[in-house]
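Q: Joint fold for the lines below.
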Amino acid sequence: MSAAITHPISQVPDAQGRFGEFGRRFVPETLMYALEELAQAYESAKKDPEFAATLEGLLKHFVGRPNPLYFAERLTRMSGGARIYFKREDLNHTGAHKINNALGQALLTMRMGKTRIIAETGAGQHGVATATACAHFGIPCTVFMGEEDVRRQKLNVFIMRTMGAEVRPVTSGSRTLRDAINEAMRDWMSSVKNTHYIIGSVVGPHPFPMIVRDFQSVIGREARAQCFEMIGGLPTEIVACVGGGSNAAGMFYPFVDDESVRITGVEAGGRSPKPGDHASALSFGNKGILHGSYSYVLQDEDGQTSDVHSVSAGLDYPGVGPEHAYWKDSGRVQYTSCSDDEALAAMQLMARTEGILPALETSHAISYTLKRASEMSPDESIVVCLSGRGDKDLNEVARLTGQQI
Amino acid sequence: MSESPITKALSARRLAGEMSFIPFIAAGDPDLPSTIRLIQTLSTAGADLIEIGFPYSDPIADGPVIQSSYTRALGKHLKLTDLFATIEQVSKTISTPLVGMVSFAIIFRAGTGSFLESAKKAGFAGLIVPDLPGDEATEFAALTKEFGIDLIQLVAPTTPAARMDKILATASGFIYCIAVAGTTGVRDAAAHEIEAGLKLLREKTQLPLCVGFGVSQAAQIEALRGKADGAIVGSAIVRHLDGAETPAGFEKSLTSIQQFAEQLAAAAHHS
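A: Joint structure:
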């Protein structure tokens, strides 16, 4: 598989779903027709002004976009360096960036004439977003969720069920996000004629990584315009957390051709850099195939997917989207990681200093940003994607810190 | 081009007006020494070809029975090198061609050339790579040809006629016709639903057509007569291995698998 970097770097993927050498389609033949059908439906939707207008209307009136770019004055003062800004995806309806993609793909589902939606979820944010979109349009919805995540994210399970979705706990394998994706794909194999699978991240076979990135790019487009208004130009650096990588892809994509902007993705460092203790596919993984896509993956020398760990259910995934692999190898984006403890500390600091309770996933990006900002000068700026709010994590945080709610 | 051992075995049955019987088991379940005895038993029971599953952690095309079988094998820390060594040992003792069913995740990690070299040395006559669809298979198909290994391609009930040509372009050995849209597993795959697809494929290729996914009984094989050249039975065999972890349990499983395989082979082989 040969490497190729295109310029400008945003001009990917090609018709085969290649981001440089990464991406493509490694799925059973049974799904190939549905993927081609989806790619065609998406191409025609992209050219349809009515589709764009409908989605824009939903994002404005149902989600509450545009959300603000917020200047974190006290955190900036505390770090003593670069000005820190947050793109407030936590203020979206359902509390995270996931709704941007769920609504876009729900519209595509109806456009394809499909009558049922399935989804996987890790932290539950994508499940909640999909259940919400389905309730809004009156489409039956089944969400696959690992049993371990069902335990960690009870509140989101209850929200999904309240929205009328069926939540199916997955008991195979590690009982987390990776197994939820396996089960969703298996369901899709037999239901592909009437069902659309709304994948929640920039992972999976082509055209999913491209579609999810495009629907999430509203984050970066708004942030970029807001930077010109508030900072008077481009920021020095932008930052986002990376599990599968959808909030990061949405934040980064509109900036990748702005060569002056430094871009950093922060993965889950977990307990330690030892195999099984973290979920940093880009930092510690190797090139390989998982869930229908060629990217970086955490696996053993026989190609078996490794067990991974992160305090945050949304980052607890052994793979990463192929475009991130492409950005890593091209050197366009730096990837680093931060530990469970650092993320927990950043969450608490953010709550006490700014009065904003971020999700544990986002707290990884915040931890990096605090360190990084202090090394930068006060005339520089750093913009973080605040991908979601932390309410869903409080039971787990209380458990880990020995407190009771 | 000389005929591959796979096409040769399947064509012999076809010429005699019979069908081929292709059983599946996963390597390493319950352990590798048992895999040797299972393969020898299936060969004696009348298998024309034996499909060997390479256990994988994330088999999205497989239903619960084969998933569990893979999980049991991987739970005992099955390694790829040991799997190949075991197959090399058993392939010398039987004349039935062996076909590996393996995820491209495993092949890619090993390195395509290195994997094929090991597979050839072990005695595999062909490979089924369920997550390498026709569009992605061009490069790998060329490489398998160099190694003299067949690359068996799958055609699904959801495959439009136009895609069939693309798939057939890289196929060899036989065509694996998926009977039902879904994962592997015991179901009532009805022959009449895939009849049109089989007819169309028959016009397009000389390769034998074998039907799998949801084929579990002699009666289903009977119903495929005249429409397909072979039947692939996986989950219905593998489920006999529930409880095979103990030596006594395994002996019991082996006996029931032998009887079941003989019954399926008889259904396939009468003309």
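Q: Anything notable?
A: Chain A is about 45% helix and 15% strand. Chain A touches chain B through 35 residues (CB under 8 Å).
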